[in-house]
Design brief:
Shape: globular
CATH topology of the largest domain: Arp2/3 complex 21 kDa subunit ARPC3
CATH architecture of the largest domain: Orthogonal Bundle
Mean pLDDT: 76
CATH class of the largest domain: Mainly Alpha
Number of domains: 2
Number of strands: 2
Number of helices: 6
Largest sheet: 2 strands, antiparallel
Order of helices and strands: HEEHHHHH
Structural class: mainly alpha
Distance between the termini: 61 Å
Strand content: under 5%
Radius of gyration: 20 Å
Helix content: 55-70%
Length: about 150
C-alpha cells in the first residue's frame, strides 16, 4: 500500500467541521458563573475532544483557525502570537516549548519596533527602508506607515 503524504481527507474534514463548531461554541455558548464578567467557555472542551479523537495536528489546526477567526471578527485584526500560542497549547506542546517560541517571536517583534522607533525619533529628512514592515502585524504596520506620511 502506498504511503500518503500530508493530511488525510478525514483529518481535513475534521479540521473544518471542528473549527466551525469551535467558533460557534466560542461565540455563542458559555456557562454563566456567580462572578461578574466571568463565564465558563465550552469551546476549549470541544477542541480537547477533537484532539483526543483525531490527534494533535487536527486539534492544533482547529485552535489556530478558530482563534484567528475569532480575533478577526471580534477585534478587526489578529493577535498572531496569541493565536499561535493557543494552537500550540491545544496541540499538546509543552508549556516550556510554547513559552520559548512566544518569547522569541515577541522579542523579534519588539526589537523591530524599537529599531523603527529609533529611526523615526532621529527625524532625518531622508529615510531608506528595506522591508521595514516584514515582521509587524497589520495594525503595527499601518501605524508605522501613518507615521511616515
Amino acid at each position: 500500500m502506498k504511503q500518503q503524504k500530508g493530511l488525510s481527507t478525514r483529518a481535513v474534514v475534521a479540521t473544518g467541521i471542528g473549527a466551525a463548531v469551535f467558533l460557534i461554541l466560542f461565540k455563542f455558548v458559555a456557562i454563566p458563573t456567580g462572578i461578574p464578567n466571568t463565564q465558563i467557555n465550552v469551546a476549549q472542551s470541544w477542541d480537547a475532544l477533537v484532539t483526543a479523537i483525531f490527534g494533535p495536528i487536527v486539534g492544533a489546526s482547529v485552535a489556530f483557525i478558530e482563534y484567528a477567526l475569532n480575533d478577526a471578527i471580534s477585534y478587526g485584526f489578529v493577535w498572531w502570537i496569541w493565536v499561535i500560542a493557543f494552537a500550540l497549547e491545544n496541540g499538546n506542546a509543552t508549556h516550556d516549548e510554547i513559552l520559548n517560541k512566544v518569547k522569541r517571536w515577541a522579542e523579534d517583534l519588539e526589537l523591530q519596533r524599537l529599531a523603527m522607533a529609533g529611526v523615526l525619533v532621529d527625524a532625518s529628512p531622508i529615510l531608506l527602508f528595506d522591508e521595514p514592515l516584514v515582521s509587524l502585524d497589520s495594525t503595527s504596520g499601518h501605524r508605522v506607515l501613518a507615521l511616515l506620511d
